Amino acid sequence: MKTFNIGELSAQSGVASHAIRFYERESLMPEPARTQSNYRRYPEDAIARLQFIIHAKQWGFTLDEIRELLMLQDANGERAEAKRIASEQLEKIRHQIQSLSRIEAVLSKTLEECSGEGPMDGCPIVEAIAQER
Q1: pLDDT tens, position by position, 35-72
Q2: For 1-133, where are the E strands, in sequence order?
Q3: DSSP string, 61-72
Q4: pLDDT tens across 112-127, in order?
Q5: What CATH number belongs to 1-61?
Q6: The pTM is what?
Q7: What are the domain boundaries of the chain?
Q8: Which of the residues 54, 57, 83, 115 has the least number of beta carbons within 10 Å of its own beta carbon?
Q9: Phi, psi of 88 (to 5 degrees)
């Protein structure tokens, strides 16, 4: 079975070496085997695991949620748990979309109201940001 040192794993996965070490400390990556000189040696499946972590982060999952999903995967756990985690994430994303849509509408309106000329006093953009709650 082919193994990689941390630099090779970084190059193969596109994840920086310091991030790989961080994921190990956070228990997202299993502790790798070590050589007699104490260098890390990662199995090929570490690439797929790192890519899973990166994709899950892009989807907005927290490190705790990612850890939980990986533990479920490692233990061949129940799909119901993965579905619960994903459902909670979807609710957070929907809330963020609503919030961003509201911000987009306000920002669009204030850009139309702002002449882009004159002093800052009374600028509708600044006033809208200051009043945001």
Answers
A1: 999 999 999 999 999 999 999 999 999 999 999 999 99
A2: 3-4, 33-34, 40-43
A3: --HHHHHHHHHH
A4: 999 888 888 889 999 8
A5: 1.10.1660.10
A6: 0.80
A7: 1-61, 78-133
A8: 115
A9: -65, -40
Report how far residue 85's alpha carbon sits from residue 79's, in angstroms, rounded to the nearest whole number: 10
List the end-to-end C-alpha distance of the chain, in Å, as a whole number: 56
The dihedral built from the CA positions of residue 82, 84, 86 and 88, taken in this order, carries a sign that is: negative
Contact 58, 49 (CB under 8 A): no
Residue 78 and residue 72 in contact, taking contact as beta carbons nearer than 8 Å: yes
User: Within 13 Å, how many C-alpha atoms sit on residue 12's CB side?
Assistant: 18
Query: Dihedral of CA 42/43/48/52: which sign?
Result: negative
For residue 131, give the amino acid letter. Q
